[in-house]
Amino acid sequence: MSTAQRQARRLPIPAAWPVRSRPAAHPWAIISAGLAPSLLTGAYLTAGILQPASYSPVRTTISAMAGQAGTDRWVMTGGIFLVGGCYLVTAMGLTGVRASARALLAVAGMAGIGIAASPEPARGTTPRHLAWTVLGAVTIAVWPAFAARRASPRPLILSVYGSAAVTAVFVALLGWLLAETRDGSVLGLAERLTSSIQTGWPFIIAVALRRSRRPRLGLAIGGSGSVRVGHRAGQGPRPQAGPVMAARLEVPRAGVLPVTVTAPARRAGLACPRLPAVAELATIGAGTGRRAASAASRPP
User: Fold this and answer.
1) What are the residue ranges spanned by the domains of the chain?
2) End-to-end C-alpha distance for the chain, whole angstroms
3) SS3 label, residue 67
4) Distance (Å, rounded) from C-alpha 14 to C-alpha 77?
């Protein structure tokens, strides 16, 4: 065995870096999802206090408080506008659900902004306001069905059956709301109850996604020379730091010998995956070439 081959067998490879997995729900998405029901509830309660005594929150909708006939209508208008903005932010941060679910949530957010931008007149309604209202109500009602996850891990509320059950409840609430629009006596109550439940569901989904995230498996290097694959927190004592023998690198190419490499652990309990195959081969090739050239240039 030549000098270059002997030195290549002990060629050090830089320690691999930890890979950070993309969170299923960003923290700022959870915050925006939690703000949506709080802003809506706070807005219609505050706006209801400012209305005259003739206003009945049980019979009259919240859109009437944001309409042109409402007293201090900016309170309710601002609340609806902020809820729509929270939907847009949440849709961007819920990376753990399908793209179709995120798109529907963004459509619901745009519908909320459209409702705030097209207030009701003093009498009746306008086609623009009605179109935005129907779009937002239908979109948020069917949204749980699109948020279902088939991949593991998934909590019960994100399973196919759980999402179907929640969608059925939302559709039933929407049907009750539509029935009350035909001279119903509790239209305001139906709208408030339906809106409060539906706006709170993205927050529940975001929290469930955050709690169901699993740590990625990697290569845990111990100080005694052993290699533990897939070490997680809570699975026994954490490995100790120190120079150790890493896993044997098998390269299925002609003319390239298997290389046993060493890599010092940066700190105790560091778990990280190995370098990609391309990076490993490039490192081995560059180091072998430099050492072979250095050995050839030495006098015999």
Assistant:
1) 3-20+219-297, 27-211
2) 17
3) coil
4) 58
Amino acid at 276: P
CA angle 116, 117, 122 (to 5 degrees): 80
pLDDT in tens, 17-41: 444 567 888 999 999 999 999 999 9
Instruction: For tokens 């003319």, name the residue.
Output: 255
Taking each helix axis from N to C terminus, what angle separates 160-180 and 127-146, rounded to the nearest 10 degrees?
Answer: 160
Is the overall model pTM greater than 0.70, yes or no?
no
Would you state the structure tokens that stand for residue 171, as one six-digit string?
Answer: 């559709």
Q: Are 154 and 163 in contact (CB under 8 A)?
A: no
235: phi > 0 → left, psi -120 to 50 → alpha, else beta; which?
beta
Rounded (10°) CA dihedral 175, 178, 183, 187: 90
User: Token pair 């209305």 is at which residue?
Assistant: 51
Q: How far apart, in Å, are the Cα atoms of 197 and each of 37, 74, 124, 187?
A: 8, 23, 27, 16
